[in-house]
Amino acid sequence: MSGTAPFWYQAYPFVFGTRILFGLGVGMINAKAISIISERYQGKTRIQMLGLRGSAEVVGASLITLAVGQLLAFGWTATFLAYSAGFLVLTLYLLFVPYGKEKKEVKKKTKEASRLTREMKGLIFILAIEAAVVVCTNTAITIRIPSLMVERGLGDAQLSSFVLSVMQLIGIVAGVSFSFLISIFKEKLLLWSGITFGLGQIVIALSPSLWVVVAGSILAGFAYSVALTTVFQLVSERIPAKLLNQATSFAVLGCSFGAFTTPFVLGAIGLLTHNGMLVFAILGSWLIVTSIFVMYLLQKRA
């Protein structure tokens, strides 16, 4: 309702308020969608479902973007009607998602399972940091790829939109292959996906041609989806089912914080350099260092 509200009334205070409500709603839905999977499924099935959720997120974003483009012909206010797709999702949820949670875990209730322990909070905080940096650098790529391509003479706004679309759609492949990747890399998948994402950004920074930019974007987009899904997979593996809602909410908060801080991070880098190549290289290096540090902390807690 808050998503479509600006279509009906466009006063600034009203639009501002409804966008805040919309953001709160999206945050709660993301957290709940992940915790539903973590609560109802176990083992390989849960890993596959988390990967498919990531793919569905990309498909949904692409379809909504397509709908916005079509609705734009009827005026800017009509674009908000794209959010009415949420009513369809709500209907499907009410019709097909079972309310009962599968309880295959030990029935014994312990004091530790009733609330987040200090160790659990530390784990969630570490994973939230990784999620924040991953989302921050990804948002920065989305903002800066067009200007980098123009600066390097590799293309215009139209070509940059193509590159960003490819980067987004490759997330579908990442989601489908997530279970396979987990079986190979296991808990080190977070480390390798973070390093790969960082290297993808460095490839974009050093790209001599459009096709190298596309290759770097594919690498970065794939690794981004895998890294973010791995964060939530680790939360679901290490936190008791009763506490997953709370734990997932904190992890999603890390994602939101990363997106929020992106302009400030880019502004801070801008104080050092305005060179697009260096901006991407700094972001990629930052992510690689963070991923290594986070994996070190996770192994200490294992």
Automatic annotation (TrEMBL):
Domain Major facilitator superfamily (MFS) profile: 1-302
Membrane topology, record value: Multi-pass membrane protein
Keywords: Membrane, Transmembrane, Transmembrane helix, Transport
Keyword DNA-binding belongs to the record: no
Subcellular location: Cell membrane
The name this protein goes by in its record: Major facilitator superfamily transporter-permease
Transmembrane regions: 20-38, 50-74, 80-99, 120-141, 161-182, 189-206, 212-235, 247-272, 278-298
Family of this protein: Belongs to the major facilitator superfamily.
Domain of life of the native organism: Bacteria
A GO molecular-function annotation: transmembrane transporter activity
An annotated GO cellular component: plasma membrane
